[in-house]
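The following record pairs a protein chain with its ligand, 1-O-phosphono-alpha-D-glucopyranose.
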Amino acid sequence: MTAGAGADETQSGRSGFRTAVVPAAGLGTRFLPATKTVPKELLPVVDTPGIELVAAEAAESGADRLVIVTSPGKDGVVAHFVEDLVLESTLAERGKFHLLEKVRKAPGLLNVSSVVQEEPLGLGHAVAQAEAVLDPGEDAIAVLLPDDLVLPCGVLEEMGRVRREHGGTVLCAIDVPKDEVSAYGVFDVAPVDGGADPNVLRVNGMVEKPAMADAPSTYAAAGRYLLDRAVFDALRRIEPGAGGELQLTDAIGLLIADGHPVHVVVHRGSRHDLGNPGGYLRAAVDFALERDEYGPALREWLTRRLAPDWNPQLTTS
Ligand code: G1P
């Protein structure tokens, strides 16, 4: 690494940002009744809350600060990142060092703070709340939606590289089936002039949750954003959009209209949507299958469970 890159890293992290914003103010209605008392972001993917996975991704990409946007009553999300000295000393006394390492992981990832979104006015409004805690020198932030697991990790570093090359704002896109576009923010894209990488595209427009017939492409926003600080000015100018909410997508649309460069990195790996029980279960199974302690038995049971001759009366496990 060059001395210049080192200096830049101190200022803004190796991917060009030091603050990662995680909007976690939603009601989690799709997970009721569980989310009556447990924030959706704390539901475990095997044994680790989804928001810890996302925080680890932010830390790996070079962020040193996580700003969680919560809503009144969702303090538990931030508490997960606070050291629990009583629990830690109990585990140490009992010699449970493996568990101790697990509970120490979240508080050790990066500095965590929170801002409160008092009213559920939309993702754009949630992200706008983070401006108040940024340092004057920060010219970009990352936003990671905790519903989205983008795997393998590393797309934010790639987005940082694209921002270094093209400036402006860089988002992550996934290519989704046409009949799913209306669940997403969808990009109107064009090749980059003279661009060598087919997975980096220029964004000419963006529309939130379009009808299938109106979607400009099948490239959808996948919950990872590297936003130039100019986004906060755009967020002050947006009006309620899709679903009557203040949409981040519309602020990005304004940036494009202002002539600000916006690009996407098309992610060709896998992605899980933790925002609904079906997607969450898939993620849990996927992660469990990779774990030495659960994977083999789960694989064996799933194989039996999915066999045409499955008979629940013949098994108890
Ligand atoms: C949000 C964004 C949308 C994006 C999606 C990705 O929608 O508004 O643009 O494509 O996340 O998961 P939500 O799923 O919160 O309705």
